[in-house]
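Worked example 2:
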Amino acid sequence: MPDPAKPLRVLVSEGSSTSAREAITILGLAGHHIEVCDPSPWCLSRFSGFVRKFHRCPGLRDDPAGYLAFIEQRLADGKFDVLLPTHEQGFLFARAKQRIEGRAGLALPSFESYRTAHSKAGFSRLLEDLTYEQWKAVVDTNLTGCFVCTQEAIKIMKNQQPRGGRIINNGSISAHAPRPLSVAYTATKHAITGLTKSTSLDGRAYDIACGQIDIGNAGTELTEAIAAGVPQADGSVRPEPRMDVADVARAVLYMAGLPLDANVATMTLMATKMPFVGRG
């Protein structure tokens, strides 16, 4: 196990997305050693002052087998503590998890959960039109996937030296109030709150802290539709403000950096003017 008092050696799976850029910035500010893989020599993250080394690799879309072999080779010498998938690379890593597991820290849901999440747009519909199979797919991805990851994390944290650790669950504003046509998603996010509280309580005996961050309208590629206009509780369709995703990364870093005798049980982080507080 890595020494928790020392900086982590992190290999980031790609360097072209804004997600990678923000992850690198926050990890770099925390003093961790960061290296990046990307097929493009001009990728966004290569020019970050926090990146110690850039690795040009085969493209995931053009040569997934070559990309995976490249990652395996980078991890083979035990140089890295963590492999951080920031984009669709996680899909491949989940499919080939047995080939890279044990070579570096890697927290991933199952391949089936990834596949379900990629088709989740089809689950936004009226409650009475949602099939049992669609309901179960959302529960399996959002709730059961989180439960399974929690189980594995606790096993590691109980047995490592020093004992203990911290789990931060990704909740949602929907853990408090739903959007229209989101019954399955909203139900699972409410359930994540229960999982967080139970984990926090049951983990006390093993020095394991557990908290939850509920995020509203972070500015990423996935929330561009929110800026254009989304259904509201009154039936209208209106654009909503978004916030810089870097603020989310800073909040998670704060939660993660606390000593184990302190814990953020829940944090709600949202765009200041989004329709949540009050009645719209």
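Residues 35 and 53 are 5 Å apart (CA to CA). The first strand starts at residue 9 and ends at 12.
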